[in-house]
Each structure stands twice: as C-alpha cells, then as structure tokens.
Hints:
Blueprint: E1 4-8, H1 15-23, E2 40-45, H2 49-58, E3 62-64, E4 67-72, H3 87-94, E5 99-105, H4 121-151, H5 156-173, H6 185-194, E6 202-207, H7 223-233, E7 237-240, H8 242-249, H9 253-263, H10 269-281, E8 283-289, E9 293-300, H11 305-312, H12 314-318, E10 320-327, H13 328-334, H14 337-342, E11 347-349, E12 359-365
Parallel strand pairs: 1-4, 1-5, 3-9, 5-6, 6-7
Antiparallel strand pairs: 2-4, 8-9, 10-11, 10-12
Helix pairs in contact: 1-8, 4-5
Amino acid sequence: MSFSCGFVGLPNVGKSTLFNALSKGGAEAANFPFCTIEPNTGIASVPDPRLKVLAELEHSGRIVPSTLKFIDIAGLVRGASQGQGLGNQFLGHIRNVDAIAHVVRLFENGDIVRVEEAGAPSRDLEIIETELMLSDLEMLEKRRDRASKLARSNDPDSKREFELLKDLAAQLAEGKMPEYDREDPQICQLVSSFGMLCDKPAFICANIGEDQIGDNWRQAPGAAELIDYAAKRNLEIVPVCAKLEEELSALPPAEAEEFMRELGITESGLDHVVRTGYRLLDYITFFTAGPMESRAWTVTRGALAPEAAGKIHTDMCRGFIRMETVSYDDLVASGSWAKAQAAGKLRIEGKEYVVQDGDVIHVRFSV
C-alpha cells in the first residue's frame, strides 16, 4: 500500500462524490449532512507511465501498479472536538490516515445544501483546522499531565517529553499551529508518537465546477481568500472537479483520455492528488520487471536496499545478499535488461545502498 489519504471537510462539500470518482468506492453521496457515518475505504491504482514502457520492454504478462487507499471521512462541523455531529468519532478516524486532503467547496449549486454560508471556503477550512487543533490540545494536555509525574523523577527522556508537550499545548492554546525543531530527529520522533492531527501532511482539494476547469477556478467566489489562506499555511491547492472525475471514471480509458484532450486537461484529478500526496509524504517508486509481470513498489525516500526488498517479500529483507539495479532511464535507453548489463549500466548494490526513484531491481537473497 502506498499511502492512505483521508478526505476531510464540512458536510456536503463533495467528499463522497470525489471519493467515488477517484476510487470507485461506491460510497453513498446524497444531499444531506452526515450522509457518511462510517468511513468508506477505496483502493486506487497509482498511474505511472513508466510501468507500461517497462512491460513492453520485458514483454511482461501483466502490469501491477502501486496502489493507494482513499478514505472518505464523515463531514465535520463546528464543535466537532466537543462531540458535535459525532465529531469525536470522526476525528478518531482522521488519526489513522497518513495524509489529509482538506476538501473545500468552490462550485456553485443552489440545489445542494450548505452547512455554512456560501462563498467562504477559507472560513470553512479554518473551521476544520480549528477543530483539529482543539482535539490535539485536549489530547496533549492529558498526555502532559501524565508526563509531569514522570518528569519529577529527573529522568532526562521524561523531562524532554514533558517540556515538549507543555510547549506544543501552549502554542495550540494560543490558537497557533505548533512549531518545533524539525531538524532534531529525537524531537521529530516524539512529536510523531503524539499523533497530532494538525501536524499530518495536508493539502487542499478544491472541489470546482465544470465551468471553473483550468485557471477559471481562481475567479470563483472566495477563491482569492482561499489562495491567501493556503499561502500562509503553506498548503498546496489541488483543484479537482468531482463531477467531471465521476464522468471520467465511468468511461473506458481511451475515451476518458480523448474527453480530457477535448477539455484541454493534461492530467486527471487522480493523477494530481497522487502526485501531491507522494510529494508530501516523500515517497518514491521503484520497479521489478520480467516476463511474468512488471510491478511498481513504493518506499519512503532514503530507504535502504533491504527495506525496499522487504516490500516485495519479507524473506528478501531477512536474507538480503545484494541488489542488482539499473535506472529506468538507462534501461529504456539500452532496450532491455541484458543490453543494459552489457553496456555496464547494471550495478551491484549492498545493504547500505539508498534506493532511488525509478530504480529497476532484482534482489538476491537466501533464507
């Protein structure tokens, strides 16, 4: 599994429609608040044009792309952190995802009920972020109170954790997004263990209308304020027309590509969401290719060869001997694995090798 991305937002902003379009998950999408109660989960293939090229080079019997998990989380409302709208239950679902896609509504449709007044997507986003921060504050304060007892023992690790919890909670209490030393691996590991909602990698998924495709969405009511808000929070905005994605998902691939060309679209919403999520989580793709199949795999940037091998099979990590690898570009330029080897492009790498995006690998192992 590549990563899990949770769609989060107010009710009736199009989360379930977007979820169904991107993952074909079959979530109920209806015109009333809290249509989604339990989180819906869907699996989508990660599009990567390199995979098809490898399959053609190696005459592979099948193509197996990497996958990602979309989770459609029920709409949050003001007061969610105090339990409004089953908020505590829904906030708990968000803690289980790797990244958050904040879905905000830019499209106009008077037939679809709005929980908040129209034309203020930045305010909608601020409501959600405030609820996440309040939930984190409650969690950190409870943890801080427990840690204070251990800190009195003068244990340095306990004291460090207590001071960090106290600092993060104080920032949240002032309405600030918590800041900490991201260059300190110990602090980063501690913060990660807290599982703060507002510290998860996130981006904005702006649900636009069909008349707002391209750069037209920037002229939508409230778009300018949303762009300013996103810049202050260092959040990327991914404009996606859920209605169009739904139409595209119902078409055969060739027809969908032709439809996008007619509209002047170079990539689908799925492509954009995946690309953004990968960059946020610092993921890379490596490949295995042969007559049986060509397959894409995902690891975090900086992963060593045994870890990558373990993605294929745990035995490969446990009994790792070496990795034979050639870059995607070198393999394509050579024309085949054998030709790449003959041209001296094939490398033998050991346990300390850091896997690179686009590596095509073969693992030698013994168990």
